[in-house]
């Protein structure tokens, strides 16, 4: 018998945005591969094998690579009783199977979830987060991460980001291979060949912006569904405020090491307050997140 869906509140807005983003990214993917096949006609088996192989590799292994890169180590209930206890309570509330539980030894206060499905999910908290948060705040953060698992956010974002990875590789290969230098200006095929790096760069930029827009919305969605599930939006707001405030006290070197994994984190780590990364962030601003939680809290307090 198929298991019923979790008790996390459904988010039609998130579903619509996921479908729309996947459609447009798929369209860009078709355009990019079509251009490659049209220009490099004799190499179409290699192109299809390469793109297919890259997709499978990213879909199956990117979450494990990310977890390894962030230093996640699975722990038993005896090693981390508070963390396991909080996740047990959230799983009971949400009617979800328990994910693998991990701890990352880092003073950067954060948490993340990886895994393509509930069966392969892993939820990790850093030692810095466990040391700083109260039990209710920790549950709020973990409920946020479990929302990503319930909505299969990791799988969707992995697929969505694939085109950007492919376009980036094509751009680099085209530039390193010296396509522009080796082509002749009076050869129509050569002219198209010269455009490959430009087309790939445009596709990369568009896919990057689309995934960032989707990522920011999914973070707001995870905040909302976590607050509704636990019934304590104020605890999640407190955790957000505390974690964001503590980031300024973390050494810059540690923040720079964490920055490549910002898309996975509960709160992004920025090595500088004013940076382009904030404009193209994978997360909404703290003010947006707190404002949403305040509205949810007001709604729950009404008779």
Describe the model.
67% of the residues lie in helices and 6% in strands. With 303 residues, the protein is mainly alpha-helical. The chain has a domain at 12-70 and 153-301. A four-stranded mixed β-sheet has the order 1-2-4-3, sandwiched between helices. α3 crosses α5 (135-150) and α5 crosses α8 (188-230). It is globular. The two termini are 39 Å apart. The relative contact order is 0.13. The model has no long low-confidence stretch (mean pLDDT 78).
Strand arrangement, major sheet: 1-2-4-3
The number of distinct helices, counting runs of at least 4 residues, comes to: 12
Percent in strands? 5-15%
Most strands sheet: 4 strands, mixed
Reconstruct the topology from this structure.
Layout: H1 12-39, H2 44-69, E1 72-74, H3 81-94, E2 100-104, E3 111-114, E4 122-126, H4 127-132, H5 135-150, H6 153-177, H7 179-182, H8 188-230, H9 233-247, H10 252-258, H11 276-279, H12 286-301
Parallel strand pairs: 2-4
Antiparallel strand pairs: 1-2, 3-4
Q: Quick gist of this model?
A:
The protein has 303 residues and is mostly helical.
What characteristics describe this protein?
mainly alpha, 67% helix, 303 residues, single chain, four-stranded mixed β-sheet, 4 strands
């Amino acid at each position: 018998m198929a298991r019923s869906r979790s008790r996390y509140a459904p988010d039609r807005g998130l579903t619509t945005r996921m479908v729309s983003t996947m459609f447009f990214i798929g369209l860009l993917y078709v355009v990019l591969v079509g251009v490659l096949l049209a220009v490099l006609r004799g190499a179409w088996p290699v192109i299809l094998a390469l793109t297919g192989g890259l997709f499978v590799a990213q879909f199956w292994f990117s979450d494990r690579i990310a977890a390894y890169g962030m230093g996640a180590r699975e722990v038993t209930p005896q090693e981390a009783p508070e963390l396991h206890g909080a996740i047990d309570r959230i799983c009971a509330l949400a009617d979800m199977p328990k994910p693998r539980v991990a701890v990352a030894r880092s003073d950067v206060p954060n948490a993340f979830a990886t895994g393509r499905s509930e069966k392969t999910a892993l939820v990790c908290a850093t030692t810095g987060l466990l040391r700083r948060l109260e039990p209710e705040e920790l549950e709020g953060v973990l409920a946020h991460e479990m929302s990503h698992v319930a909505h299969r956010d990791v799988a969707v974002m992995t697929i969505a980001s694939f085109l950007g990875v492919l376009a980036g590789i094509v751009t680099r290969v085209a530039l390193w291979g010296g396509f522009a230098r080796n082509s002749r200006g009076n050869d129509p095929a050569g002219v198209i060949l010269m455009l490959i790096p430009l087309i790939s760069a445009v596709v990369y930029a568009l896919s990057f912006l689309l995934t960032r827009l989707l990522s920011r919305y999914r973070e707001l969605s995870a905040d909302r569904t976590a607050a509704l599930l636990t019934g304590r939006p104020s605890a999640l707001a407190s955790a957000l405020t505390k974690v964001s405030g503590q980031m300024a006290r973390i050494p810059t070197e540690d923040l720079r090491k964490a920055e490549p994994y910002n898309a996975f984190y509960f709160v992004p780590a920025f090595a500088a307050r004013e940076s382009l990364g904030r404009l193209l962030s994978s997360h909404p601003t703290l003010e947006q997140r707190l404002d949403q939680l305040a509205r949810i809290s007001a709604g729950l307090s009404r008779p």
